[in-house]
Specification:
By secondary structure, the protein is of the alpha+beta class. Helix content is 43%, strand content 20%. The strands form 5 sheets. Strands 8, 9, 10, 12 and 14 form a 5-stranded antiparallel β-sheet that branches. The chain starts with 31 loop residues before the first helix and ends in a 6-residue tail after the last strand.
């Protein structure tokens, strides 16, 4: 590597020797990969903002209502009764990210993470527009609080707060649903004070993250950065500095025109520090793979620009694995990657199968706690139950009634015979099941009940039926 010591790993790049925050003033990135990142980021920004407001079959495209334990993922509704499906979906997401981390390092962080997208493609671009590029920002930070500095700071802080407030609204739409959010906005903040307070808290959190905490989220707070250290190996493709080419035998050296660097034994790295200046987390990529690196490719673009200016081959910093740099080995689909892929395919198949098998209505019929059977005339045994029917669709299910299909008997509802289960809602009540004792074979019989909507069978469920022990 470039250094004989790994002392740089003893502390993070955003902390100085006194243990204080070392503010990062990255140079404004440019280049081919940065353009690609902008296209990806703008698409994902549109996706993140639109997802709570897009509906499929009446279901919000994405919703994570933690308080009511209701989730929508890609238009599929998940209720508390579907928690196992939601867990499988989350496990699939984690394995998917782990698979790409093993193969391509922290590419998710640099290209798809909402934190990176908002910080680099929204807040920093506004900062470049108001404060200028790296040199101008450093100069502004060091100058006295004069009219120019106050004007720029206040303008930037106001814009940051407005954007944070808009992000908080979108975030709230994910939590409580876009319909409810729009209703709250229409009603006015005075009628929903608690929601407005929550919204201001979210705004303050987002403002703190994007205006001050910034890259510290990726370095200190995000657990994915720690996951990277466990998952990466020498075959993982990451943003890497080709130290073999960059250092050669006698290390890097400043550029001098008409100098034969190869004859002098110097590498292609001209020690211009542009890769360091453009890094949004303030690291030197020439030190090797570091937990602070989010694979944003800014250093690749900057290095390629410099190499082009000094007529040296591009790709001194590029997407590559350690084995490719040292051993010239190309990327291979390793047994480890095959294992992750197999698990991902299996779990995805299980989830798809369970989604297709899931009913639109879920029925639960349970005996009323503390109640025994009742012996009625004509050798009839009666049990009392509570029922709950959950409608997972966006349409009312009407003309609902029960039929006993495992035994000869009757089902009597306490209040009404046929009823409606409202869309995305719950219907509950009490019913009696009566069975002739001659049809009962044990003191705790399992019975099967069908739920019909008109003449259509929509669900079946089982429950226990108590009877006297003498009827075994």
């Amino acid at each position: 590597m470039a250094q004989d010591s790994d002392n740089f790993r003893d502390s993070i790049g955003t902390i100085n020797e006194e243990g204080k925050r070392a503010w990062v003033f990255p140079k404004k990135p440019s280049g081919k990969l940065y353009q690609y990142r902008k296209y990806v980021s703008y698409f994902l920004l549109a996706f993140l903002v639109a997802s709570p407001f897009v509906k499929i079959n009446g279901n919000q495209f994405l919703m994570f209502n933690v308080l009511e334990r209701r989730f929508n993922i890609f238009g599929f509704p998940f209720w508390p009764q579907d928690f196992h499906l939601f867990v499988i979906s989350m496990i699939i997401g984690v394995i998917f990210i782990a698979l790409f981390t093993v193969a391509f390092g922290r590419i998710f962080c640099g290209w798809m993470c909402p934190q990176t997208i908002f910080l680099e493609m929204v807040f920093r671009r506004i900062e470049f527009w108001i404060d200028g590029d790296r040199g101008a920002q450093i100069k502004l930070d060091r100058q006295e609080w004069n009219a120019e500095k106050i004007k720029k700071r206040v303008l930037k802080w106001i814009i940051f707060f407005i954007i944070s407030f808009l992000i908080a609204n979108v975030f709230l739409a994910y939590l409580i649903g876009s319909d409810r959010l729009i209703q709250y906005v229409t009603d006015g903040p005075g009628q929903h004070v608690s929601t407005m307070i929550s919204l201001l808290i979210f705004t303050a959190v987002f403002y703190f993250i994007f205006a001050w905490f910034r890259e510290q989220v990726c370095i200190i707070a995000c657990p994915y950065g720690r996951m990277q250290g466990v998952l990466l190996d020498n075959k993982s493709i990451v943003v890497a500095y080709d130290h073999k080419r960059g250092e050669n035998e006698n290390g890097r050296k400043k550029w001098r025109k008409n100098e034969d660097r190869e004859a002098l034994g110097n590498g292609d790295c001209i020690d211009c520090f542009q890769c360091v200046n453009v890094c949004p987390t303030g690291i030197d990529i020439r030190n090797g793979t570091q937990l602070e690196c989010v694979n944003c490719t800014a250093c690749i673009d900057e290095c390629d620009t410099i190499m082009e200016k000094v007529n040296l081959p591009k790709g001194l910093i590029r997407y590559a694995s350690e084995d490719e740099i040292v051993k010239k080995e190309k990327f291979k689909f390793t047994p480890r990657l095959k294992g992750y892929t197999a698990i991902l395919v299996i779990l995805t198949g299980v989830l798809i199968g369970m989604l297709f098998l899931r009913n639109d209505i879920e029925a639960n019929i349970l005996r009323l706690p503390g109640q025994l059977y009742e012996h009625k005339e004509g050798n009839i045994i009666s049990n009392v139950y509570t029922y709950k029917l959950l409608n997972k669709t966006n349409k009312d299910i009407d003309d609902v009634h029960f039929e006993l299909i495992s035994h000869k008997g009757t089902i009597k509802l306490v209040r009404h015979e046929d009823f409606i289960v409202p869309a995305q809602n719950l219907a509950e009540g009490t019913l009696f099941i009566e069975i002739n004792n001659s049809a009962i074979k044990s003191d705790k019989e399992r019975i099967k009940i069908a739920v019909y909507s008109g003449d259509d069978l929509i669900e079946t469920t089982t429950t226990a039926f108590l009877a006297p022990r003498s009827y075994k």
